[in-house]
């Protein structure tokens, strides 16, 4: 009687490959989990998604809450720009009459599709915001003017839907740009030309709102490094904001054949230029909007 073979190979190469796979699995089990998570956290999000399919052990590691937190933290600290627009849970609408905001309404966007506008009371009439607004810790800030001509920073608490106001000076309203500086509202203004920053600029002024209730601002002047003129090379740049790594982002605001993003480091007072590829596909001179601090999160996979 002939015996039946059960998927056994006499090929020594096949036997060695199977043995090496077992050894690799055993080696993986001996690696500390903290080291494994640190290695995984250095991979891009697309690679993390593929690693989910390798084995049940890998998938269980990648689904751990502490790994999700580790990956999110590292993603938050890295340089990322998103050229897109995010949806918001609430919409603030303002109607104007004779350049003054006449009515304030809030619309909450819900998944069930029920939409309802609510009127919001505002104690001080003020001019319609013309330049950038910024949201920090759930508070929307924008520069404006009171009827008597005083400069104001308007603060709208998105959660409680209430307005408050901070007295301001001319150097924090347009053409100054409002930014998030270490969790505080601040403004950036180039010198000597406040409208944009170029190779002829020598410094820029930063005003930081230290205490909103006491209307207290601090002032700092940052000198541009000696290599500034050579790095910028004739481009007219605009402040886009400040990253979570404490770097100012500057761009030209319009598409060109060679589109650059510039990073100025507050702490080191250095400038870095990065070329963004793919902008040639857009019509020359097209408006470019830059959104800072785009963060990847493995919880969404």
From TrEMBL:
Domain of life (superkingdom): Eukaryota
InterPro entries: F-box-assoc_dom_typ3, F-box-assoc_interact_dom, F-box-like_dom_sf, F-box_dom
SUPFAM superfamilies xref list: F-box domain
Limits of the F-box domain: 25-75
PROSITE patterns according to UniProt: FBOX
Database matches in CDD domains: F-box_AtFBW1-like (cd22157)
SMART domains cross-referenced by the UniProt entry: FBOX (SM00256)
Protein name in the entry: F-box domain-containing protein
């Amino acid at each position: 009687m002939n015996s039946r073979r059960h998927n056994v190979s006499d090929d020594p190469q096949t036997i060695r490959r199977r043995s090496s796979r077992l050894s690799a699995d055993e080696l993986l089990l001996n690696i500390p989990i903290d080291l494994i998570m640190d290695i995984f956290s250095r991979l891009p999000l697309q690679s993390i998604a593929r690693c989910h399919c390798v084995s049940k052990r890998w998938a269980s590691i990648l689904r751990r809450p502490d790994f999700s937190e580790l990956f999110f933290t590292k993603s938050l600290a890295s340089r990322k720009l998103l050229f897109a627009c995010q949806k918001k849970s609430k919409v603030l609408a303002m109607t104007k009459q004779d350049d003054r905001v006449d009515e304030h309404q809030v619309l909450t966007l819900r998944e069930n599709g029920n939409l309802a506008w609510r009127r919001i009371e505002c104690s001080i009439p003020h001019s319609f915001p013309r330049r950038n607004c910024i949201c920090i810790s759930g508070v929307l800030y924008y520069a404006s003017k009171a009827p008597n001509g005083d400069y104001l920073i308007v603060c709208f608490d998105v959660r409680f839907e209430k307005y408050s106001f901070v007295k301001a000076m001319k150097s924090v309203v347009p053409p100054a740009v409002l930014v998030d500086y270490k969790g505080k509202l601040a403004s950036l203004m180039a010198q000597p030309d406040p409208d944009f920053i170029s190779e002829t600029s020598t410094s820029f002024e930063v005003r930081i709102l230290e205490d909103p209730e006491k209307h207290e601002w601090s002032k700092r002047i940052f000198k541009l490094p000696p290599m500034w003129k050579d790095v910028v090379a004739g481009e007219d740049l605009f402040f886009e904001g400040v990253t979570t790594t404490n770097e100012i982002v500057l761009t030209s605001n319009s598409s060109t054949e060679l589109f650059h993003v510039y990073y100025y480091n507050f702490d080191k007072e250095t400038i870095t230029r990065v070329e963004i590829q793919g902008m040639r596909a857009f019509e020359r001179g097209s408006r470019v909007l830059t959104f800072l601090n785009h963060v990847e999160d493995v919880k969404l996979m």
